[in-house]
Amino acid sequence: QLQLVESGGGLVQPGGSLRLSCEAAGHTLDYYAVGWFRQAPGKEREGVSCISSDSSDVRTYYSASVKGRFTISRDNAKNTVYLQMNDLRPEDTAVYYCAAEQDEILLCPHFNSWGQGTQVTVSS
User: Among positive and negative, which fits the CA dihedral 80, 114, 98, 13?
Assistant: First the structure.
């Protein structure tokens, strides 16, 4: 049973930065692809970024709305995946979720394990 816990959310001003963490328990993340998603009030869940399970040759994906501003990375020794968010905008305000699926090939597979989310608010 894989458990995922997000942390690092908070209130920041436009142009600011945050680093979100997704820590896993119950199983190692070494062979899991991990994704970050977000959902704003009244809107559907949106895929943000994914990272492959190959930590020696990491492949990543970013949605068009965050590419160039966000960076996903993983530290298998800490069983943690991070999302560095720079140049934040009010439209980035949402609850951010991480998800994981055991897959050694696909970058963004269908995810079955989800965390409970962390709130990110971008406002002056």
Answer: negative
